[in-house]
């Protein structure tokens, strides 16, 4: 059964990006350290067209997520880091070059219209200006019987969570203290408005702790 999922690496003190993001440092100061555990994995390298890499539990978990995904939704900031009209965006084609690693349709939430952009390797970026529900409807249709992955950033994940549209979250907790930056859960909801979560799986590895939660509807 198709699910709407969200997956991200988070520091022990709750940050998913460091402070002061820029074109040169899109994850903010120190934010790249959140992803060091993943860069050498065989499954990550394969998804980026590279050979070799480490096998084992972490790589297997990532391969599981990659295989389950049929479409991705992300915010404008995750796509390019820009804002405003596309002609003024210094990074209008995104961070991933000519052959992005998604290899399926990606729906970018934006306030500015733009034609779809087909890339090498099977990724096509579609730009949605009509809100999170419209993006999800399109992504569901594109994904078929596979999952729709909410890629982020944190604000986009919070929007889908608040709207009751998220089915599952997988958070990779990295033994790292960033001290500042973008928090994953920082939307100001009161206790009575918080969604209920059910722990599905906890897996520990030397580099990271993998937490999976089901959102109770």
Summarize the structure in words.
- The strands form two sheets. The chain has a nine-stranded mixed sheet with strand order 5-6-4-3-7-1-8-11-10. A two-stranded antiparallel ribbon has the order 2-9.
- 22% of the residues lie in helices and 29% in strands.
- The chain has a single domain (4-16, 30-216), classed as Dihydrofolate Reductase, subunit A, CATH 3.40.430.
- The protein has helices spanning 36-39, 42-47, 57-68, 76-79, 132-143, 154-162, and strands at residues 4-11, 15-17, 69-75, 105-109, 117-118, 124-128, 147-152, 168-174, 182-183, 196-204, 209-216.
- With 217 residues, the protein is an alpha/beta fold.
- It is built from six helices and eleven strands.
Number of strands: 11
Outline type: globular
What do we call the CATH homologous superfamily? Dihydrofolate Reductase, subunit A
Given the structure, what is the number of helices? 6
Based on the coordinates given, report the CATH architecture. 3-Layer(aba) Sandwich
- Helix fraction? 10-25%
| CATH domain topology | Dihydrofolate Reductase, subunit A
Neighbour order of strands in the largest sheet: 5-6-4-3-7-1-8-11-10
Proportion in β-strands: 25-35%
Class by SSE composition: alpha/beta
CATH class category? Alpha Beta
What is the radius of gyration?
17 Å
């Amino acid at each position: 059964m198709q699910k709407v999922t969200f997956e991200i690496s988070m520091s022990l003190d709750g940050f998913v990006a460091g402070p002061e993001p820029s074109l040169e440092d899109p994850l903010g100061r120190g934010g790249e350290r959140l992803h060091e555990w993943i860069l050498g994995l065989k499954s990550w390298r394969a998804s980026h067209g590279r050979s070799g890499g480490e096998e084992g539990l972490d790589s297997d978990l990532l391969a599981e997520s990659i295989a389950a995904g049929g479409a991705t939704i992300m915010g404008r900031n995750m796509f390019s880091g820009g804002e405003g009209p596309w002609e003024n965006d210094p990074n209008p084609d995104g961070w991933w070059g000519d052959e992005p690693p998604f290899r399926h349709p990606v729906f970018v939430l934006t306030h500015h219209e733009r034609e779809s952009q087909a890339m090498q390797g099977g990724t096509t970026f579609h730009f949605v200006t009509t809100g999170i529900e419209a993006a999800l409807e399109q992504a569901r249709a594109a994904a078929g019987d596979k999952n729709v992955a909410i890629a982020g950033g944190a604000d986009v994940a919070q929007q889908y969570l608040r709207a009751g549209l998220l089915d599952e979250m997988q958070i990779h907790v990295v033994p790292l203290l960033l001290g500042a930056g973008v928090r994953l859960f920082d939307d100001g909801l009161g206790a009575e408005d918080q969604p209920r979560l059910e722990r599905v799986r906890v897996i520990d590895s030397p580099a990271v702790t993998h937490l999976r939660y089901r959102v109770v509807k």
